[in-house]
Amino acid sequence: MSKLEQVLILEPxxxxxxxxxxxxxxxxxxxxxxxxxxRVCFKVKTTAPRRYCVRPNSGVVEPSSSINVSVMLQPFDYxxxxxxxxxxxxxxxxxxxxxxxNETMINMVSDxxxxxxxxxxxxxSKLKCVFELPPEALQNDLDAAKEAKExxxxxxxxxxxxxxxxxxxxxxxxEATVAVKAVNVGSSAxxxxxxxxxxxxxxxxxxxxxxxxxxxxxxxxxxxQRKATPSDNTQTFTTEFAPVEQRSAIPPVLYLLxxxxxxxxxxxxxx
Length: 271
Known about the structure:
Elements: E1 9-11, E2 15-19, E3 26-34, E4 40-46, E5 52-55, E6 58-61, E7 65-73, E8 87-94, H1 102-108, H2 111-116, E9 123-132, H3 135-153, H4 166-169, H5 174-228, H6 234-248, H7 252-270
Parallel strand pairs: 2-9
Antiparallel strand pairs: 1-3, 3-7, 4-6, 4-8, 5-7, 8-9
Helix pairs in contact: 5-6, 5-7
Organism: Branchiostoma floridae (Florida lancelet)
Pfam families: Motile_Sperm
InterPro entries: Ig-like_fold (IPR013783), MSP_dom (IPR000535), PapD-like_sf (IPR008962), VAP (IPR016763)
């Protein structure tokens, strides 16, 4: 069964226009005309109840009279490129028969009455909301929306962190590691050789000192023998002791060996 045709005449009939700017409350007026000889109850609904304030949002229209409804749009950030899907619906039905005054009738127009009503007796009209801006304000909003999108499209700046160079990532060559190990081993070996050379030098110095002492002792013994024997035998004793004195002198080989050892020590320190 089809619904009843709306008996109320709405002005405007198809859309509610709200003219910006929308930085403050914008009001659009809706006029409900009752051309019949009966009382008509009405109720105003919207798809965006938090965005609008309707006064009155329900009531009774007397026969052959009208009533003005104020629809107030709350302030918001208007985006001209956003599609508006807000709608309003005006429901109506004939008031119950009987001698009921207006105050009592208004109190009766409650949610419970609308729920308990015969749905086949309900009438409704729908209106869509239209947002309008003056040309200058519209252009400003378009420019602001365009600028906001451009800012959003700019990628965030990443910090310029220098990448490590390939040389920093390059592993240490194996030859360098081997060379370091060889230097360490060489140092240990040179320390050991140095200790041996020093010990050898001490031993040679001790031998040289010993030979010098023996040489001095032999000289003293020769002098005593010369004093104790006649002068004619001096040549004989001198001839006999001469080879002994030559044998007891420091051999040149020892000087050569000492020079070689000192050269080896100096070379080790320099290298």
